[in-house]
């Protein structure tokens, strides 16, 4: 473990939790992932299971337990909390509508918004589900999607792998009238603490005001906002 709290047993228990966070794991897998002795790993896993932090399936593999779900349900969303600090400044700099999108299967959901006080704007309601086949936000989420999610979304998308590779290379995406006639947007990835892309932050507005190459207008400010969001996460 790279960092420790100074409480050895707690750090080891967290190692066990992390080892089965993405998929159920047998005892041998937990030992391999954590590097802990078999007896120690088993003792910690059983203790975490007793408290509801882990649970076992019919094959005896450990996975996240019901208490973790209950705790997570009551926790604030760190992405939304970070957006509340960052989006207003991006809106004020650009004078346009700004949003944060998170992937939701083959769609994307708007989890945070900040709108200018007046003027013509591109209003995306909080909680709105938008397709993954159009718009700069969709390009960003697809460019860094895991292969299985990418294949599912690509079936209904016009984005080529060359286009998505270019998004990854330059670090942002732009679109004009892709999602909606007359609307242009620029988006950049938001990363978590270990560098995984978990969302897209976007600036959008009337194409005639943002111009036909919105990236040249707002990419630098957008990248600064994406870095600020990532830093808060």
TrEMBL record:
<keyword id="KW-0805">Transcription regulation</keyword>
<dbReference type="InterPro" id="IPR050707">
    <property type="entry name" value="HTH_MetabolicPath_Reg"/>
</dbReference>
<keyword id="KW-0238">DNA-binding</keyword>
<protein>
    <submittedName>
        <fullName>IclR family transcriptional regulator</fullName>
    </submittedName>
</protein>
<dbReference type="InterPro" id="IPR036390">
    <property type="entry name" value="WH_DNA-bd_sf"/>
</dbReference>
<dbReference type="GO" id="GO:0003677">
    <property type="term" value="F:DNA binding"/>
</dbReference>
<feature type="domain" description="HTH iclR-type">
    <location>
        <begin position="7"/>
        <end position="66"/>
    </location>
</feature>
<dbReference type="Pfam" id="PF09339">
    <property type="entry name" value="HTH_IclR"/>
</dbReference>
<dbReference type="GO" id="GO:0045892">
    <property type="term" value="P:negative regulation of DNA-templated transcription"/>
</dbReference>
<dbReference type="GO" id="GO:0003700">
    <property type="term" value="F:DNA-binding transcription factor activity"/>
</dbReference>
<keyword id="KW-0804">Transcription</keyword>
<dbReference type="InterPro" id="IPR005471">
    <property type="entry name" value="Tscrpt_reg_IclR_N"/>
</dbReference>
<dbReference type="InterPro" id="IPR029016">
    <property type="entry name" value="GAF-like_dom_sf"/>
</dbReference>
<dbReference type="InterPro" id="IPR014757">
    <property type="entry name" value="Tscrpt_reg_IclR_C"/>
</dbReference>
<dbReference type="InterPro" id="IPR036388">
    <property type="entry name" value="WH-like_DNA-bd_sf"/>
</dbReference>
<dbReference type="Pfam" id="PF01614">
    <property type="entry name" value="IclR_C"/>
</dbReference>
<feature type="domain" description="IclR-ED">
    <location>
        <begin position="67"/>
        <end position="233"/>
    </location>
</feature>
């Amino acid at each position: 473990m790279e960092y420790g709290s100074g409480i050895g047993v707690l750090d080891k228990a967290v190692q066990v939790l992390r080892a089965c966070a993405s998929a159920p794991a047998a005892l041998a897998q937990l030992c391999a992932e954590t590097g802990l002795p078999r007896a120690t790993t088993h003792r910690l896993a059983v203790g975490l299971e007793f408290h509801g932090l882990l649970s076992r399936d019919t094959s005896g593999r450990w996975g996240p337990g019901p208490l973790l779900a209950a705790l997570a349900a009551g926790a604030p969303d760190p992405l939304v909390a970070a957006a509340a600090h960052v989006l207003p400044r991006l809106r004020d700099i650009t004078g346009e509508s700004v949003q944060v999108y998170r992937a939701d299967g083959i769609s994307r959901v708007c989890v945070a918004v900040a709108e200018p006080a007046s003027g013509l704007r591109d209003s995306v309601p909080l909680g709105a589900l938008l397709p993954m086949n159009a718009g700069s936000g969709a390009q960003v989420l697809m460019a860094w999607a895991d292969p299985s999610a990418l294949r599912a979304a690509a079936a209904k998308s016009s984005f080529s792998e060359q286009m998505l590779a270019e998004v990854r290379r330059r670090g942002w995406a732009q679109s004009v009238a892709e999602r909606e006639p007359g609307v242009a947007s620029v988006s950049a990835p938001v990363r978590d603490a270990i560098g995984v892309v978990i969302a897209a932050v976007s600036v959008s507005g009337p194409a005639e005001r943002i111009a036909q190459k919105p990236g040249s207008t707002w990419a630098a400010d957008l990248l600064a906002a994406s870095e600020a969001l990532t830093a808060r996460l």
